[in-house]
Structures are given as structure tokens and as C-alpha cells.
Amino acid sequence: MLSLVSVLGALAAYMGVQQLTDTEQALAIAQDVPAGEVITEADLTRVEVSSDLPVLTSASQVVGKQARSALPAGTLLNSGLVGGSNVANGNVIVPVPAKVGQFPRGLAPGTQVSLVPSKRDNSGELPTVPAIDATVVGVSPPDTATGVTVVDVAVSEAAGHDVARLGSDNGLTVIIRVGVQ
Predict the structure, then answer these.
(1) Between the CA of residue 79 and those of 30, 43, 83, 89, 113, what are the distances in Å?
(2) b/e map of 27-42 (b: 16 or more CB within 10 Å)?
(3) Looking at the predicted structure, is the pLDDT value of residue 180 above 60?
(4) What is the overall mean pLDDT for the chain?
(5) What are 44-95's pLDDT values in tens digits?
């Protein structure tokens, strides 16, 4: 009887250790990936994790998809962190180059903004285009040579052409719309 108890105890201990040591290769971010960026194979690394974590394990689940938020190096990936950009159908994403003073600090994906024409034409007049409402989907770090930060925004397709034209020569100022959901 004592030997049966010993065998059962040993078996239980073995199974407990197995559960604690069951691991799998999961995907993690190798280098910082900004929100909205398309994830490539070079952005990924593999790490050993407990097999009961809800993580992605195949590069095909991630490569070619967008980061839904900024992903610092070392982040374990799950399905909620990657996918589409959550931009509504009929909208387009347009890059808006802006220098210091043309956008407030603290812009982040999801921020509701208005894009205001702010560069005068050759006759000294401001464009007659009204302010354009937009949603920030990404913000690049400032370019070290030019000081330009690119603010990627989602706007209606119709407004996208105006944003692209006015933004091409730093002709837009970005303002945050407070209290707008």
C-alpha cells in the first residue's frame, strides 16, 4: 500500500512539473513598432513562454498586419494588438507633415483633431478650405534633419485630397478637438 501511495505521489509531482514546464515558442516584438505601422518579419523575435498564455505563435498571423498601438520591443503578441487600423470604410489615411508649432504635444492614435489650413498662398491669402475633422492613426518621431513629424490621419475620402494637397508643403496646423468621441 505504501508503494502505491509513493507511486501516485511521484506521478502527481511529475504531472505538476510538466504543467509548469510546458512551454511554446511565441512571437514578440524585436524592435519598437509605432502604432499603425505594418509589421514585418524583421520586427519579430521568438521567445519561450508558458503554453497556456494567449499569444500568437505563427508569423503568418502577424506579418503584413498593422500594429493597433505602439508596440515596444519585448511585447508578447496577441490577436488584439495586430490587425486593421480601425479606420472606417470610406475613409483614407493621409500623412500630414508638421513642424514644431503646427501640432500639440501628446498626439496619439485615436485623438480627434481638426486640420486647419495655415499657410498663405502667393497673394497672402489663406486657403478657403474649412477645417477638416480627422482621427490620428499614427505619429512619427521628428526627422532629425528637418524637424518634421508626420501625423497620419484618417479623413473622409473626399477630404483626403484637400488634406494631401494642403499638407504637402506644411500648410496645415493640427488642433486637438477636446471632448469629442
Answers:
(1) 17, 16, 7, 21, 28
(2) bbbbeebebbbebeee
(3) yes
(4) 82
(5) 999 999 888 888 899 888 888 888 778 899 999 988 788 765 567 778 889 9
pLDDT digits (tens, 9 = 90+) for 118-133: 877 778 777 777 889 9
What is the reported pTM? Answer: 0.56
Cβ atoms within 10 A of the Cβ of 123, count? 5
Q: What is the DSSP string of the chain?
A: -HHHHHHHHHHHHHHHHHHHH-EEEEEEESS-B-TTPBP-GGGEEEEEEETTS-----GGGTTTPEESS-B-TTPBP-GGGEE---PPTTEEEEEEEE-TTSS-TT--TT-EEEEEE----TTSPPP-PPPEEEEEEEEPPPPTTT--EEEEEEEEHHHHHHHHHHHTTT-EEEEE-TT--
Beta-bridge partner residues of 138: 152
C-alpha cell at 40: 514585418
